[in-house]
Structures are given as C-alpha cells and as structure tokens.
Write a structure and sequence with these properties.
CATH topology of the largest domain: TIM Barrel
Number of helices: 12
Structural class: alpha/beta
Oligomer: single chain
CATH superfamily of the largest domain: Alanine racemase
Strand content: 25-35%
CATH class of the largest domain: Alpha Beta
Helix content: 25-40%
Largest sheet: 8 strands, parallel, barrel
Number of domains: 2
Shape: elongated
C-alpha cells in the first residue's frame, strides 16, 4: 500500500474561482496567471479548467511552449518579457505577447528581424520598484516603441504594490492616470488583490486583469477578509491519514527538541506528512488541522515525514482517520491554506508552490 498522502486538484473549483473574478471585474478580459507551474498545481492539470480565460500569463518560454502544446491558440503573455535577444524569435514563432520593462528590451526589439509585429505590454514602475519604467521615462519608452516597425499594439500596464493592504492603490493609480491619460492602447492594471478589493474604482479602467492567487482559491489579502468572503474555493487539497496514536501523561513531550510538553494526560495522532512533502517545517504548535473533518491543532515540531496532532475531544479518531492539512475534507469542511500559512508565518502562495514531487496528485473534474 502506498504512503497515505495525496494532493487533489479540483477543476470545478478552478472554474468557479475564474467565474468569481469575472463577477468582480465586469467586461475586462482575464489573463489566467499560470506561472510557477500554475502556482504548484501543475499547468497541464489546470489548463482545461482555465481555458475559459481570455489568455494565459506566465514567465518563461518553456511554460509558453507547454501551453501551446496543450492546444491553446489564444493570447499568451510573458510577464517579465524577454531575457535575451534570441527569445524574440520564439516569441514570433509561438505568437507570444511580452512585457517591455527596460530600455534594453526595446533595443532588442529594434534589432529584431521579423515579418510579424509583436504585441507588447509596456510596464510603468508606479511605485512597486521592481520592474518597469519610472513615470518620467515612460512616455519616452512609449515613443520609441511606437516608432518601431517590429511593434504592433502597445498595452499600458503597471502593478500595484499595496492593493492588498491599507495603503491601497490611490497614489499609484493617480501616477499612472496622469502619465498615460492621452496615450492610446489597452490598459492592464489589476492583480488578484486589485481585481477583488478595488473593482469599483477600476471598473471600466482595465482592459485586461491578471488574477493569479485568486484562481487557486486563496485570498490575496488574508485575513481581512478571507477567501470565504470572496466566495473562493480551494483548488488544492493536501490530505493524509493518521498512522499511529500515542497516549501522553502530564509532562510528556512530543517530537524533536521536545518543544511541546503535555500539561495534562492527552492523546495525539501521528500523520504521514512532513516538510519533505511541502508542509512548512516552521509551522508549530497551534497550526490548524482537520481530523475527520473536525478542527484541531498541530503539536510539536514538524519532521521530514511526520507531524503530530492533538486528538483531545476526538475520541472517534484513530489509525486511518482522514487528516486534511489544507483544502477541503471529504466531509465538506474547509481549512483555508491561508490559515495554515499564517500559522507558519508565511503566505498561501509559498505552500502551493512548495508541494513536493513525491506527493501523488489526483485531479477531480465533475464537469458534464
């Protein structure tokens, strides 16, 4: 019998989440962001569920080739653009759209010989200070691109640094609006957080939105509010089973380093899941877990292959009981990945992307 750990990807939940993004963003076209192997879910696993999007956005040419191999003939956007001049040849062959965020990328385009002009996304650094032209250099970059025969349409884009927090988007949005007010072309402004939290302000301002984490059922602004507030459903469930139980006396300890000490007689369960499966080692006592669909907590230190959970108040739980590390239990009870991540001092994005290759994966698809 194989080790009882399994990740499940639910395509119906992916479809639902895409529909929720469309609900908030109105007539905007949607890039389904599938970078990092679809946030750890597997590009090939999510493709059928997300092909109702208007395009796929990703990072590198290998991912773009995979999407084309799946039969996608629509738009594909390289979010960081080309890294060297020869990448433009593959952009032409695969009909890729690509971001232009620095003068060197314009130089590469100017030297590129092609009979098919490229569609580009010109990126403004409106305050994120990661990629993009500073506002005072943005119009000059646009003028250079507009003059190139190698360039067809120019979409104007930026990325909000605080769409998920109290600072919001007002300052960056004002800069973008001031600089681009009279420039032609489509606009692409919103990631998941901006699409959900600032839909009203940006209604009619976005020609393209770029949701990523929301498609996979995680809240970009956890915990205020959580995924349930947006009616997002977990696309990934990580589940295992109890493989042993132990009865503790007062003063007994659990795991490496004896970081958990029982303050009363209690029963614990040992779960076939550890940091080698992608569960965060830095999660500690108190991290939420579902056992047979009921909430309990992790106790002690996470090992490579095992972790321990508190079975107090769960007399029915025993060897073989279902354990949901995140996602949706067979009972229907949900444990948001964001809660587990918060308990480990990180974000749901990291847990999704960290799912280990040794974990078997199944795909659920109840679509008719």
């Amino acid at each position: 019998m194989p080790r009882p750990i399994l990740a499940t990807i639910d395509r119906q939940h992916l479809r639902h989440n895409l529909a929720r993004v469309r609900h908030f963003t109105g007539d905007a076209k949607v890039w389904a962001v599938v970078k990092a192997d679809a946030y750890g879910h597997g590009l090939e696993r999510v493709f059928e569920a997300l092909r109702a999007a208007d395009g796929f956005a990703l990072l590198d040419l290998a991912e773009a080739e995979r999407v084309r191999a799946l039969g996608w003939r629509g738009p594909i956007l390289l979010l960081e653009g080309c890294f060297e001049a020869r990448d433009l040849e593959l952009c032409s062959r695969l009909d890729l759209w690509h971001t232009v965020h620095c003068s060197e990328q314009i130089d590469m385009l100017a030297a590129h010989k092609t009979q098919l002009p490229h569609r580009v996304f010109l990126k403004m650094n409106s305050g994120m200070n990661r990629l993009g032209f500073k506002p005072e250099r943005f119009r000059a970059a646009w003028t250079r691109l507009e003059a190139l025969p190698q360039v067809d349409d120019i979409c104007l884009s930026t990325h909000f640094s605080d769409a998920d927090g109290p600072r919001g988007i007002a300052a960056q949005w004002a800069v973008f609006e001031r600089i681009t007010a009279d420039l032609p072309g489509e606009r692409s402004l919103s990631n998941s957080a901006a699409s959900l939290r600032h839909a009203g302000v940006l209604q009619g301002r976005n020609d393209w939105v770029r949701p990523g984490i929301a498609l996979y059922g995680s809240a970009p602004d956890h915990q205020s509010p959580d995924a349930g507030h947006w009616d997002l459903r977990p696309a990934m469930t990580l589940a295992s089973r109890l493989i042993a139980t132990q009865d503790l006396d007062t003063g007994d300890t659990v795991g490496y380093g004896s970081t958990f000490v029982a303050d009363r007689p209690m029963r614990i369960g040992v779960v076939a899941c550890g940091y080698a499966d992608g569960y965060p080692r830095h999660a500690g006592t108190g991290a939420p877990v579902l056992v047979a669909g009921r909430r309990t907590r992790l106790v002690g230190r996470v090992s490579m292959d095992m972790l321990a959970v508190d079975l107090s108040g769960l007399p029915q739980a025993g060897q073989g009981s279902e354990v949901t590390l995140w996602g949706q239990a067979s009972t229907g009870e949900r444990l948001p990945i964001d809660e587990v991540a918060a308990a480990a001092g990180t974000v749901g994005y990291q847990l999704m992307c960290a799912l280990a290759r040794r974990v078997p994966v199944q795909v659920l698809d109840e679509a008719v």
